[in-house]
Amino acid sequence: MHRLVALVGPSGVGVNELRRRLIEINPVTFQGAVPHTTRAAKSSEESGREYHFINRELFENMVYNNRFLEYGEYRGNYYGTTINAVKDVLKSGKICVIDIESHAIQSVRTHELKAYIIYVKPATIECMKVTRQNAQITTSYNAKRPYKEEDFQEMEEAARKLEARYCQYFDHVIVNNQLQDSCAQLLTAVRKAQDEPQWVPANWIRPINES
Q1: Does residue 161 sit in helix, strand or coil?
Q2: What SUPFAM superfamilies does the database record attribute to this sequence (predicted)?
């Protein structure tokens, strides 16, 4: 069975875009886990494809029963990725690629999932200024507001805190200087993850009741 690959990084560093591009490059090999949500489906959406659309009561029941790797609320609706959604991808013979918040690292780093965790690190502030400015020029007129100096500083500070707390769990680190280059690095890292043995906690391989 293929490994679960979990991407983690501070907000704004491009984790979701990297995941999306990797799946786009080779959808036969890579797939994301379909999340659950309590929001209404749009006319172009189909349950089980973009999202599993469920009601709030069922979602909260699933939270209570620890069915989610992580979940959150956005604009009054719940969103979350279940353990079973990841398993479904792995059982289909594909590599499951997800992006997670740092607090969910422990949820995927288990005996059951054995996630390969890739940390996506922001480039230097100077480099980020250049790449974000270029992106702003090439995107449409209704793009998000331009990045400000404090946005880069906040991202750098968030990365520092994330690394200080979780660096021991990272199996691989990518510095997101240029999206295309980072995507190539990610592809190499994911392939490597499937072929090489991984250092794992001893309790993953020893029986739990062993004295």
Answers
A1: helix
A2: P-loop containing nucleoside triphosphate hydrolases
